[in-house]
Amino acid sequence: MIVPSGSGPALRRARSTVAAVLVCVGAVWAGSLVQAQSAGAPASLTAPGSALVQAERLRLRVPPGMLPFPVDAGSDCYILDNFGDGRSGGTRLHEGVDIMGSAGRAVTAVVDGTLTKRYTNTGTAGWGWTLYDGATDITYKYFHLTADPNGLAQGARVSRGDVIGYVGSSGTSSPDNFHLHFEVRPGNVAVDPLPLLFVEPTGCGVSPPIR
Ligand SMILES: [Zn+2]
Fold this sequence. Notes:
Blueprint: H1 9-25, H2 33-38, H3 42-49, H4 54-61, E1 78-80, E2 86-87, E3 92-93, E4 97-100, E5 106-108, E6 113-120, E7 127-133, E8 138-145, E9 157-158, E10 163-166, E11 179-186, E12 205-206
Parallel strand pairs: 1-12
Antiparallel strand pairs: 1-4, 2-3, 4-11, 5-10, 6-7, 6-9, 7-8, 8-11
């Protein structure tokens, strides 16, 4: 299991929450992305795909307890395993993972929920959203998007699989460093999203741990 190497009350809470979440998904997740990447059979998924809306395709292919991948990944997609990495000279820790590449490609809601906050490129997040699932009390954050909100506004209800924006490089990201910063926050305490994400067999590579 991957846990952050930092210290402090927030991360200690995060560690325990990670353990709890992993227990919940343990039946379908053995702690290895390799296993996720080998799960499923693309040939059997493409046949019904054209006749189904995206939400139905997600229901078919994402194992129970896991999150659908939040980006329509391009061939240059690469995940940095960097939850808990030091930021600002070590005064704070990175509270999500960075999904690199896939410039301009669709970013999707991982759950049914409400877009409770629109980030407007005024801070480090750039353009982005907070997505909140009241049924589970889990908050999801999406940073560094393009300015295009895809017709959505703060307060909008969205369904799992809905497009909520596009991969950009806004905020503290450098102009050519297109990526999605993605957070998962049960009870608004950050946990490592990586073990929870379903990465399709044709999906993104993953870096060694960075922290
Ligand atoms: Zn990040």
